[in-house]
Write a structure and sequence with these properties.
Radius of gyration: 28 Å
Shape: globular
Number of helices: 23
Number of strands: 13
CATH architecture of the domain at 7-133: 2-Layer Sandwich
Family: Belongs to the tRNA nucleotidyltransferase/poly(A) polymerase family.
Domain Poly A polymerase head: 23-143
Bound molecules: adenosine-5'-triphosphate, magnesium ion
Domain CCA-adding enzyme C-terminal: 295-437
Helix content: 40-55%
EC number: 2.7.7.21, 2.7.7.25, 3.1.3.-, 3.1.4.-
CATH topology of the domain at 7-133: Beta Polymerase, domain 2
Strand order of the largest sheet: 3-4-5-2-1-8-9
Keywords: Hydrolase, Magnesium, Metal-binding, Nucleotide-binding, Nucleotidyltransferase, RNA-binding, Transferase, tRNA processing
CATH superfamily of the domain at 7-133: Beta Polymerase, domain 2
Largest sheet: 7 strands, mixed
Length: 441
């Protein structure tokens, strides 16, 4: 087996070996190049200790000396070079409590999570595949290296990683590995929110975000997203829907492009439906105010999972407005863009489309026509550069001050009124005109 590896990675292997050490590229990059996916990064594993690595290369960064990792900088790229090691328990759920270095590649490969992630490659010696990773790759199987119960006990994050890799690659999880997941999913409680977040985002932004269903079925979501479990258990007795809330969510995620903000929005857009559900005398369900409540719940959930503020604010805003349905005419669309925000509006349109397509066929044509109309109006707003926010209002606070108005909070109110006027009469977005109108008043 011959793999193409970057010349700088090859150079690092060569320098290490010239100096009497062993070195291989390893893990995700080997897996991805065999699968014909472009690896994100090339990790190197070596018998040299971190100090020995640092002696051989001029430019290095101490990325994680305690776990044996030094980043070697070559041109503009960094390569993580890690000493062969054996891991202790992952006590804090973040890093192994203690690591021991070893001179054996086999020991290093044994500590890795799945067979497809436990292969090493050397340009001359070829592929080192001690746990039948190639076979599992061909059979499209995620399988633990060694005993699943033991491996999940050592580090419960691997439980979620199994589902993440299966979603990224479209692989199935091998039976014993799946049994281990079911048995030990409760241990995910002890894993830090940051580590869970990383794997969750990779799962959601994958070609199979609906594999979150497997995470539900095996008891994984129960540990860090029990709100989603409620959704899987909530029916929707309304003609608009043909799935439970949870299945609707899973379908909607598949119907939107693999972007982190969009997938998180779909994941959480109906998260409040189980708590807002009201069944009327005829047995029909209503979910009034689920978007407003959903915004609150999503904020709590995203904070709990330690997402950054930018992601939280975008996702929660999209959730608040996901059910906002302006008429397909210029005036209401201008108001909607102003309300939802210029930056988020195109994303909001994508959210509405995915949401609609994951519903039943009931009134589908009517819903699709409205959304199409709104989309067209939005494009016209852009083409005609119509003003929908203070950013492009022809008058600024400074203009008002030059015109003799005193600085202060009233200035903001005047600008707001001008913007309201311009949202109604886009042709009036002209400085002279707006100032004249103000004088008239
Ligand atoms: P990605 O494309 O997402 O980066 P990856 O396989 O490179 O996938 P990383 O999380 O970057 O995943 O880890 C690199 C390698 O380190 C893995 O391929 C695996 O061999 C090993 N590894 C990472 N995390 C663990 C873990 N929690 N337990 C055991 N081995 C792990
Ligand atoms: Mg990686």
């Amino acid at each position: 087996m011959k793999l193409t590896i970057p010349s700088n990675a090859e150079k690092i292997l060569h320098i290490l070996e010239e100096n009497g050490y062993e070195a291989y590229v390893v893990g995700g990059c080997v897996r991805d190049s065999i699968l014909g996916r472009a690896p994100d990064d090339w990790d190197i594993t070596t018998s040299a200790s971190p100090e020995q690595v640092k002696e051989l290369f001029h430019r290095t960064v101490d990325t994680g000396l305690q776990h044996g990792t030094v980043t070697v900088l070559m041109d503009k790229e960094g390569y993580e070079v890690t000493t062969y090691r054996v891991d202790g328990d992952y006590e804090d759920g973040r890093h192994p409590k203690q690591v021991m270095f070893t001179s054996s590649l086999e020991e290093d490969l044994k500590r890795r999570d799945f067979t497809i992630n436990a292969m090493a490659y050397h340009p001359v010696r070829g592929l080192v595949d001690l746990f039948h990773g190639m076979e599992d790759m061909q059979a499209k199987i995620i399988r633990c290296v060694g005993d699943p119960m033991e491996r999940f006990h050592e580090d419960a994050l691997r439980i979620l990683r199994a589902v993440r890799f299966s979603a990224q690659l479209g692989f199935t999880i091998e039976k014993e590995t799946k049994n281990g997941i079911r048995a030990l999913a409760p241990n995910l409680k002890c894993v830090s929110a940051e580590r869970i977040q990383t794997e969750l985002v990779k799962l959601l932004a994958s070609p199979h975000p609906d594999y979150l269903r497997v995470a539900y079925e095996t008891g994984i979501t129960k540990e860090f997203l029990p709100e989603f479990d409620r959704c899987m258990e909530t029916e929707q007795n309304t003609p608009h829907h043909c799935y439970t809330v949870g299945e609707h969510i899973l379908h909607s995620m598949m119907l939107i492009r693999p972007d982190k903000v969009l997938r998180l929005t779909m994941l959480l857009h109906d998260i409040a439906k189980p708590v807002m559900r009201k069944t009327d005398e005829s047995g029909r369900d209503h979910f009034k105010m689920h978007a407003t409540e959903g915004e609150k719940m999503a904020k709590t959930i995203l904070r709990r999972l330690k997402f950054d503020n930018d992601t939280i604010s975008k996702v929660t805003r999209l959730i608040r407005y996901h059910d906002d349905r302006p008429m397909p005419e210029m005036r209401s669309v201008r108001h909607a863009v102003n309300r939802i925000g210029e930056e988020l509006f195109p994303l909001y349109l994508e959210v509405q489309k995915a949401d609609m397509l994951a519903q039943s066929e009931y009134r589908r044509e009517e819903k699709a026509a409205r959304l199409q109309g709104v989309t067209e109006c939005y494009h016209r707003v852009l083409e005609q550069k119509q003003c929908v926010s203070l950013k492009t209002l022809a008058v600024t606070g400074r203009d008002l001050i030059s015109a003799g108005y005193k600085p202060g909070p009233e200035l903001g109110e005047i600008l707001k009124e001008m913007l309201d006027h311009v949202l109604e009469y886009p042709q009036d977005n002209d400085r002279e005109k707006l100032l004249a109108l103000l004088k008239e008043r």
